[in-house]
């Protein structure tokens, strides 16, 4: 059964490349963008974000397997914040109920991020109280990382 993915920003750039890759893999892709997409909406507006949910729900039959929020702008304007932040948050939060309806298998426990009860600490100058609570190693200096790297 092919998976159904929603890709925002699907008309150009990384979003377009992502959509094309998923389609090559045989997945059903619902492209979202301000032009040249299955769902044409303006993610910088509340009305556009609400329309996104309605149209994706209609096109998907009420369930999607993945949401890739790739849409983004790179100009120093309020529209950039509206799309890059509010558009992304609304896309992920508002499409989450459609993910619950997915028939796709959940990731197996071996593919999930390992959870560890031990805490990794570091004496690195980059360590902080937040880093010390993380279940993964603290960042290394580039020289130390280069020395430990083996091809």
Please characterize this protein's 3D structure.
The protein folds into 2 domains: 4-100, Rossmann fold (3-Layer(aba) Sandwich), CATH 3.40.50.720; 110-148, no CATH class. 40% of the residues lie in helices and 11% in strands. It contains 5 helices and 4 strands; from the N terminus they run E-H-E-E-H-E-H-H-H. The protein has helices at 13-24, 46-60, 78-100, 129-132, 142-148, and strands at residues 4-8, 28-33, 39-40, 66-69. Strands 3-2-1-4 form a 4-stranded parallel beta sheet, with helices on both faces. Helix 1 links the parallel strand 1 (4-8) and strand 2. The longest helix is centred in the middle third of the chain and has 23 residues, at 78-100. The chain is globular and about 40 Å long.
What are the secondary-structure elements, in order, as H or E? EHEEHEHHH
Report the portion of residues in β strands.
5-15%
CATH superfamily caption of the largest domain: NAD(P)-binding Rossmann-like Domain
Task: Compute the number of structural domains.
Answer: 2
In total, how many beta strands?
4
Radius of gyration: 20 Å
Number of helices: 5
CATH class membership of the largest domain: Alpha Beta
C-alpha geometry: globular
Structural class: alpha/beta
Portion in helices: 40-55%
Reported by name, the CATH topology of the largest domain is Rossmann fold
Largest sheet: 4 strands, parallel
Question: Based on the structure given, which CATH architecture of the largest domain is correct?
Answer: 3-Layer(aba) Sandwich
Please give the alpha-carbon distance between the first and last residues. 39 Å
Kindly report the average pLDDT value.
81
